[in-house]
């Protein structure tokens, strides 16, 4: 259950909050204009923000992996270590981060970035929840 819906939902909240503050949040506060008055290229600023975002995700999910491995070892839960590492790597949610970073870079207002990227990510999570309840067979057409 934890890896089914809770991890994507919690990682989506983290990605929406951090991704919105990277570029669009700095434009709203005016710190981006101050930063670009220095002899720093926009590409350098964007790459720095991208590396920070990816690093924050790797540290977050890396600590979650280490914690789940420690709990698995000390609680003697019996899960395979390889499976736990693969689940945590699969939960890294780089696609969600890319959507939010793109929205933060395209829109220069935080509310537009949040409204586009955040709504897309939440829509994908909602569609995944709805798909988990789908019965792929039509029960009325079964042979009696």
What does this structure look like?
The protein is mostly helical. Helix content is 78%, strand content 0%. It is built from seven helices and no strands. Helix 1 runs parallel beside helix 6, helix 1 runs antiparallel to helix 7 and helix 4 (42-74) runs antiparallel to helix 5. The chain is flat and about 65 Å long. 17% of the residues are buried.
How is the topology of this model organized?
Layout: H1 2-22, H2 24-29, H3 31-37, H4 42-74, H5 81-90, H6 94-106, H7 110-132
Helix pairs in contact: 1-6, 1-7, 4-5, 4-6, 6-7
Which labels suit this protein?
144 residues; single chain; mainly alpha
| Series of H and E elements | HHHHHHH
- The helix content is over 70%
Low-confidence stretches: none
Mass-distribution shape: flat
- Give me the number of helical elements: 7
In short:
This protein is mainly α. The chain has helices at residues 2-22, 24-29, 31-37, 42-74, 81-90, 94-106, 110-132.
